[in-house]
Write a structure and sequence with these properties.
alpha+beta, 2 domains, two-stranded antiparallel ribbon, 5 helices, 4 strands, elongated
Length: 220
């Protein structure tokens, strides 16, 4: 009651003050309830502004329809099945016992034996003794054996390069990789008939720390 009486006094003697004006509006609404603002019956959800529309479509994404989801899932299953089928089409790995009947085929067992010898060296970090000396000598020995057993019509050349340089890596905030006297074992296979065409195949024989480096791309 005291607060209401104080409000009436405020409206009577201080009508220009903001708080008194609010009290006066409250008293008027109490005397005339029909003047109260009512919520309109037809209330619709807010529509996106024209600036929020692009090419006549709302920027809000709609959930994927069932038909679209089934189509995407079917495509994924089809690709997965195609990969399995293609993998099954890989040629059968031949052994050294199959060499007499397949003189022009790749002998996987021979390459696997070289790989085992290379991995027994252990981790071969670039610049280490294991990589720059032991691994290089092993590769040179294996290539020289191939040269000695090659047909006279084949010309096989062996060379060891030593390169130094640097290059920039766009990784994280960037870094510069500097190398000195890194060795490349280069083998050129050709014939006595000169040809203007050639094919370059390269790989790396080093490895990361604490890894024997027996990945498939070692002899790619």
């Amino acid at each position: 009651m005291f607060a209401r009486g104080s409000a009436k006094l405020c409206v009577k003697y201080f009508p220009t003050i903001n708080i008194c004006r609010k009290y006066r509006q409250v008293f008027r609404e109490e005397q005339n309830p029909s003047s109260l603002r009512k919520r309109p019956k037809d209330v619709r959800a807010p529509q996106p502004a024209p600036s929020e529309r692009r090419n006549g479509k709302s920027k809000f994404l709609r959930p994927m329809q069932t038909a679209h989801f089934i189509g995407v899932l079917s495509l994924m299953l089809l690709v997965f099945a195609a990969v399995i089928v293609i993998e099954k089409q890989l040629p059968t790995a031949l052994k050294t016992a199959d060499e007499p009947n397949n003189p022009d085929r790749f002998i996987a067992e021979r390459a696997y034996d070289i790989l085992k010898k290379l991995t027994t060296i252990g981790p071969r970090i670039a610049g280490s003794y294991a990589n720059e000396v032991t691994a290089v000598e092993l590769l040179k020995t294996q290539v020289q054996e191939i040269i000695d057993a090659a047909h006279p019509n084949h010309v096989i050349e062996l060379d060891v390069q030593r390169a130094s340089g640097d290059f920039n890596l766009e990784f994280l905030d960037g870094m510069t990789n500097v190398y000195r006297d890194v060795q490349n074992v280069v083998v050129k296979v050709g014939s006595k008939i000169n040809s203007p065409h050639s094919l370059l195949i390269n790989c790396h024989f080093d490895s990361v720390v604490d890894s024997p480096g027996e990945s498939a791309y070692l002899f790619v």
